[in-house]
Amino acid sequence: MRLRRLVSLSLLAVAFLSCRRAPELAPAPQRRVANEDELAIYRVLTESTYVRSTGRPVAVLSTSLDSACGTATCAPLARRWGLESPWWAAAADSARARAANAALLRRAADTIDLRRISEGHDEIIPIAGKEIPAPSSDERSWGEFQYYHKGAGGVLRFSPIGFSPSRREAVVFLEWDCGPACGHDLVTALRVDSASTWHVADMLLLSSRQPRGASH
């Protein structure tokens, strides 16, 4: 009788454990070289938005942004990167927009190598983080930076890219620095056309840094 009771208790314990859901673990961060779709998106944003608007070459950090936040008052990453809602989608494609947002958040900690971004694109300059002027740098430091980097109008830092399941929509966060108290953060949505060319669909400005006395 005692042996039968022990066997019954063991079976119950096994059944209980099998019913418990295993914890869902986030994908382990990856380190990889940007693929052709990613490079096309990074180049479109760099050239169509920043090279065109400044009329100058633009530097791009050669590795993707670190998603960590070092302050005690950090907002959740989805809020910091503008991914809390499918703001860029029409009602018909909101599900695809949410999927792209979720894909970016899942891969936010990945390290993407962007050094190939300049291949065939003379106005894009890949640079290492140590070459970027510090946030507290003055105009002289930025002048020296421009002198050594073909007169670059500023520096772009890109997040990894979130793709929808069809890979026809994408979303990416970026930071633009162009001098002391000059720059902005924004999130951009893109779509690919029938010719497999990526186009900017919409942009959302998250924050802006302007010198004192600048007009708003």
Q: How are the elements arranged and paired?
A:
Elements lengths: L1 H18 L11 E3 L2 H19 L3 E4 L15 H4 L13 H13 L4 E3 L10 E4 L11 H10 L6 E9 L5 E11 L2 E11 L5 E12 L7
Parallel strand pairs: 1-3, 2-4, 2-5
Antiparallel strand pairs: 5-6, 6-7, 7-8
Task: Provide a short characterization of the protein structure.
The protein is of the alpha/beta class. The protein has helices at 2-19, 36-54, 77-80, 94-106, 139-148, and strands at residues 31-33, 58-61, 111-113, 124-127, 155-163, 169-179, 182-192, 198-209. The chain has a six-stranded mixed β-sheet.
Helix content: 25-40%
- Domain count: the total is 1
Number of DSSP strands? 8
Strand sequence of the main sheet, in spatial order? 4-2-5-6-7-8
Q: How many helices?
A: 5
What structural class results from the helix and strand content? alpha/beta
Assess the beta-strand content as a share of residues: 25-35%
Kindly provide the radius of gyration, computed on alpha-carbon positions and rounded to a whole number of angstroms: 23 Å
Rounded to the nearest angstrom, the distance between the terminal CA atoms is 84 Å
Give the SSE string: HEHEHHEEHEEEE
Mean pLDDT: 86
Poorly predicted regions: 6-24, 212-216
Shape verdict: globular
Main beta-sheet strand count, sense and barrel state: 6 strands, mixed
